[in-house]
Amino acid sequence: MNRNKGMIEGILFSMGGSVKKKQLMDVLGIEKKVLDDLLSEMKEDYKSEERGIQLIELEDSCQLCTKQSCYDVLIRVVKQPKKYRLTEVMLETLSIIAYKQPVTKSQIEAIRGVKCDHAVNRLMEYGLVEEAGRLDVVGRPILLRTTEEFLRAFGVEHIEDLPSVDPTMLEEFTQEAQQEIGGL
Description:
The chain has helices at about 5-15, 20-30, 30-45, 70-80, 90-100, 105-110, 115-125, 150-155, 165-180, and strands spanning about 20, 55-60, 60-65, 130-135, 140-145. It is of the alpha+beta class. A hairpin with a 7-residue loop joins β4 (about 130-135) and β5. The longest helix has 16 residues, at about 165-180. It is elongated.
């Protein structure tokens, strides 16, 4: 095994969570292209069926994690797998944050038409949403965005990988919403 691949593996294993690629480049004294090549090689190495871990990339970070094929056995060891109980309200709120981020609670409420405090608080407890700063307007409302945990939970590497909404369906949704508003 290449010494740098071994070092990356050791760092990622020891840290448990994700590690910024910039940190790895700085510590190992390598360029981005070299790191990207090493990470690609490692991903291929872990694809072997007998391997129980995989290397995932999340935005500008990477992490070692258990392969999905091992979950059944892992669950029996852990006994209490981390499960999110996402209600329809929480899913709607999370969808708005994911597609509109960074977004404020009032912007979410304007889209949904109801308060979202409870849903946002639960999503933050689950680590799926976090503060992304404050909007530079009167009252300086908090901006919200999704987290790396969101990316992991939904199996995407980048926010851009989320499915896009079909423009025809979007137009239908808009018309339905306008009819509902008109009917009130």
